[in-house]
Amino acid sequence: MQSPIGSTRTAAVIGNPVRHSLSPPIHNAAFQALDLDWTYVAFDVGPGQAHKALDAMRTLHLGGLSVTMPHKADIAAAVDRLTPEASLLGAVNCVAWEQGELVGHNTDGGGFVASLVAETGRSVRDQRCVVLGAGGAARAVILALSQAGASDVAVLNRTTEKAVAAAALAGPVGRVGKLGDVAGADIVVNATSVGMAGTPTAGMSPVAEEMLSDGQVVADLIYHPLATPLLQSAERRRATCLGGVGMLVHQAARQFELWTTHAAPLTVMHEAAGRAIGANQ
Ligand code: ATR
Fold it and tell me: Which atom of ligand 1 is nearest to the CA of 133?
């Protein structure tokens, strides 16, 4: 788009490392598709420096900020205001302007539930859920599942204390679970790094295949590889599979909408994510 000099709005992601972030191609594809005079760049910001990035956002009038590791908690402490979700999670993945204030959002959990509904056609209401993991991504998913009406959210994690804290986010429907809960669950979500390429657990599944069955939705937040060992097992057991790209796209779509107030072009963003993942792998 041809635009007057100086009118382009800039959004950015801060992280460390940030070089392989998929957010720039996803957001830039969306800006282009809607012919918006916006651009999106990645800034490598060292640990402990996130508050300076927020000052820069104010000074440079950045239109939006995405926040990734290791800055989500620091930004939560530095924004003018938090949404209820970001406050409960103590983590911000998106900063947007609202009436001159910088508001910290967390779009991860909402993005996960939106991708589940969009890609499987299933609702979360009254569903029994098992979440594997209790890190940042797991906590966002646990909160969102409970807010979407899950009847039970069982949290399984290698480190029990973290499972206790994460399960509490789901309120009365949250509890620390055990492996035996997987077979009886309607929705199983892997939010651990088990099975991720390039880690010591590459090629491994966090649960035994026999625990999975048709009728279940089995989701993996990992998208490298796309067909994780867990999803391959789920496929063989005829469960409904949900890969990690959907959450990536939907959490980005929510950010895009907060910044631009335009409906996000989901298909375009999905295709851009697919191309970027292919290029990275
Ligand atoms: P993210 O931001 O992606 O959620 P994280 O906060 O580092 O990443 O969380 C990683 C999750 O994967 C944690 O639940 C972690 O378990 P611990 O809390 O016990 O550390 C889990 N995890 C990582 N490696 C694991 C492994 N080899 N076996 C089981 N769980 C593992």
Answer: 14
Q: Tell whether ligand 1 has an atom less than 6 A from the beta carbon of residue 73.
A: no
**C-alpha–C-alpha distance, residues 255 and 233, integer Å:** 33
DSSP letter, residue 190? E
* Closest ligand 1 atom, residue 163 Cα: 18
CA gap 279, 40 in Å, rounded: 19
pTM given for the model: 0.96
Q: How confident is the model at residue 278 (pLDDT cuts 50, 70, 90)?
A: confident
- Tell me, in angstroms, the distance from the centre of ligand 1 to residue 134's CA: 7
Is residue 54 scored above 80 in pLDDT?
yes
Catalytic residue status for 162: no
pLDDT digits (tens, 9 = 90+) for 161-187: 999 999 999 999 999 999 999 999 999
- Counting atoms of ligand 1 from 1, which one is nearest the CA of 136? 4
**Alpha-carbon gap, residue 95 to 79, rounded angstroms:** 8
Residues 10 and 166: their CA atoms lie apart, in Å, by 35
Q: Among all chains, which residue has been given the structure tokens 């299933």?
A: 122
Segments of 116-245 assigned E as strands: 128-132, 152-156, 174-176, 187-190, 217-220, 240-242
* Ligand 1 mean position, distance from CA 6 (Å): 44
The rounded Å distance from CA 191 to ligand 1 centre is: 8
Residue with tokens 């969009």: 118
| Sequence-separated contacts (24+) of 97-100 with Cβ below 8 Å | 97/63, 97/64
